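Input record, target 12 of the design panel.
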């Protein structure tokens, strides 16, 4: 009798990484995204970095890749920069909701595909069109989530810090309040 104990453990780890409030390493993906606003999601910290919205899009893209490979699709690939790292310059409420919903749906689809696996032996098979096993690929998507959840957390902190500066020192740009009773010049 074949077992799928390892597949079930992997599903648990994927779910913990994605949405647990007690992930060992820190905030899960859902926790990292919890209070991100559309404005926060579109901010780039510098010209050569990605926004939170772009990171979430990228995470979804690679989840879809894993799902398609589990389904046996040897032809599916992510070959263009726009498919991997789509530029999202402006994020409104609707688009931010859609980006997060696509990530959530890709998680559900990934778990659903893994639940269909009948034996741990599947994990040792090679991914169609690749030179690595399903085991390696699935653990790779877990590591990918942890990495990007950390990025999201850092970007959030930086953006919140920027907002504090803007709120606390916004008057310096305007000078209207400072010019009334002072001689700074």
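The sequence produced for target 12 reads:
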């Amino acid at each position: 009798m074949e077992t799928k104990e390892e597949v079930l453990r992997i599903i648990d780890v994927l779910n913990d990484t994605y949405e647990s409030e007690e992930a060992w390493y820190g905030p899960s993906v859902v926790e990292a995204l919890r209070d991100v606003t559309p404005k926060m999601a579109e901010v780039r910290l510098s010209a050569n970095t990605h926004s939170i919205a772009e990171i979430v899009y990228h995470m979804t893209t690679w989840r879809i890749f894993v799902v398609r490979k589990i389904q046996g699709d040897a032809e599916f690939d992510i070959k263009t920069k726009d498919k991997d790292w789509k530029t999202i310059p402006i994020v409104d409420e609707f688009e931010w909701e859609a980006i997060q919903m696509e990530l959530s749906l890709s998680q559900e689809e990934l778990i659903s595909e893994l639940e269909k696996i009948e034996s741990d032996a599947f994990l040792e098979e090679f991914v169609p069109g690749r030179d690595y096993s399903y085991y390696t690929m699935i653990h790779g998507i877990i590591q990918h989530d942890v990495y990007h959840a950390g990025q999201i957390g850092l970007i959030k902190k930086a953006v919140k810090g920027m907002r504090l500066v803007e709120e606390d020192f916004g008057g310096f740009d305007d000078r209207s309040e400072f010019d009334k009773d002072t001689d700074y010049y």
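The mean pLDDT is 88.
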